[in-house]
Here is the input.
Amino acid sequence: MSKATNSLFTHLACVECGEQHDRHQVQYVCKNESCKAILSAQYDFASNTLTKEELKNRPASLWRYKEFLPVVDEKNIVSLGEGFTPVLPLLNLEKYTEGKQVLLKDESNNPTGSFKARGLSLAVSKAKELGVKEFVIPTAGNAGGALAAYAARGGLKAHVFMPKLTPAAFKFEARLFGADVTEVDGNISDCGKLANAQAAENGWFDVSTLKEPYRLEGKKTMGYEIAEQLNWTVPDVILYPTGGGTGIVGIWKAFNELEQLGWIGSKRPRMVAVQSDSCNGIYTAFHQKEERSTYKDNGFTVANGLRVPKPYADKVILQVLRDSNGNSVSVNDADILSALRELGAHEGLFVAPEGAALWHAYKVLNQEGWIKAGETVLLLNTGSGYKYLENII
Ligand SMILES: Cc1ncc(COP(=O)(O)O)c(C=O)c1O
Ligand SMILES: [Zn+2]
Here is the structure.
């Protein structure tokens, strides 16, 4: 039985040149050859009738926002219960948090233990709606596991390209979910080239970060949740571990949409892109006031998800950092690991190394006085530490 989601999705627009793209077809990036920027789903918010009150009775998953998501028929939703993750205040690290409220949104509670579940639930559901049967993804680990899980759940096929230097649990889970996993002697950019070539050869749908429009729609639900969980306010600062940067772009999009709905005002958090010294092109470009980043790869980092030498959406990420009066911090592996142990020992949280980088970055910004007394800071812990054991022990 088919049941409408009552989605207000109207069209896909290029973020650079504005060109509209047909939402009934499978789309990647802007078709305009001289542009090729990312596509962004647009909605008719003026026609919304859903109220904040009605939302309270909705299921505790990201599909509670289904009117503002692109899937139009409920039968196409491929779900494992993703989203509506807890926002936890840090309680026992007063030495650093005194006079501030430091919150951690814990995305490790998602299916497959990371925030990648959000984007892949959306991408797989929408692709299913458009008739896609076979997917391919280049991944630092978490996205591959999430694609494999959602493909299995939807009765579809996944091909995963992952660097050889990825912890074993990531390879294991993707294979457990029935994906065909190729280990690549290289970084995620090398995986991306192989995935792209295989997609063209075999007619598979390539769900690389921000090269298809719907993972972003899943990630934006983190922004919807943050606002709803803070009773329709936004924090003063959000720290986000930035690889491909979908979360930064998505959370920013969410706040703009919520303002169009009249559910929040014009206040925005200062957005902070936290990177690893391994790949800190965004950090460098931000501080050098560049419009784009340049390819940078210093090799292995314990935060595998942060080894992204050149994010496709670098220009959009840098724009968000500037528009929000934000910042960027780069962290080395030793500091990531000690931050991870500190959160474990004092808060009972086993965060992913990517999330741990945020705690170190917070301490740096706090020490510098960039974070001020009375401010609310939200750390977006993107995943669980359990899959990274051999990077940590
Ligand atoms: C746990 C974790 N955090 C952060 C990232 C980076 O995410 P994004 O590509 O959205 O910047 C990844 C990517 O693999 C990840 O697995
Ligand atoms: Zn364009």
Observations:
- The chain has a mean pLDDT of 97.
